[in-house]
Structures are given as structure tokens and as C-alpha cells.
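ESCALATION

Customer reports they have been waiting on this structure for their group meeting. Please prioritize. Original submission:
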Amino acid sequence: MATEGKPLRGASGIAKLMALMCFEDSRLGRLKEGLGPITRTGDYSDVVVVDADGRIIPWQRVARLDAEEMRLTRREIVDRLYTYMRNMGSLEMLALGGHRREETSEWDRPRENATLKKQMEVLASGVVETGRRTPATGGAIPG
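Update from on-call: job pushed to the front of the queue and completed.
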């Protein structure tokens, strides 16, 4: 169990392997395949998409997934996370993780996400702010 100021041993490696096997290897990770737009400004404000009806859409406003693609992506990721977590201690998962660990060696070290941490703290404190309602708790979370 993690204690204050002392991270769970191995959490960094586990997080990276989960990201690799459950996100990078999914249809979400495949979004990076293909041709990407060239930007000279660095923020893509100089990139537009012209759709079949001739609408010119700034790159920052282009939806990359439609609702059905998002549903399929979410389903695949949830299934991959479920499979990963159900098999975390198995010899097969340990072997696969050991085999693939090198692929994450150059990745940045994970950090706690401030937004998620705040949501946990607010809900744990019993003080629930008005805002979005979470299906799991029925409580509101700060946006």
C-alpha cells in the first residue's frame, strides 16, 4: 500500500505497461498512423480540413472520432484494461510485461494527474460541489 510521500513500488512501470498494452496497442493508438498535417505555426492554427460538403474546418475544431468510433474505442480499451488487471499476477502477463518493458524505457516518468487527484479528494472529503454528476457515485465533481 502506498504511503504519503512514498510512491507504490513499481507503479511507474505498471502504468507504462498498461498504457502500452491497453492504449497504444488499441484503435486509439492507431490514430497516429497515416499522414499527419504539416503546421508552420506549431499550434495547427494554419491547418484546415475541407469536408465533402466543402466546409472549411480549423484543425483544432475537427472531431477526430465520431460517436460510434468512440464507443468502439472505449469498449476495446475497457476490455484491454479488464484483461490486463485480471491477469496482472499471472506468469503469462509477467512474461509479456518483461518482453515489452523496453518499449517504454524512453517514456516520461508518470506523474499524478492533478484533476483526478482533486476529484478523489473532493469526493473523499464529503464536500460535493455542484457540477457534473458521476454515474458511479451520483456525486458532483469539479470541472
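Sent to customer with the following note: The chain has two domains: 11-36+65-111, 112-143.
Escalation resolved.
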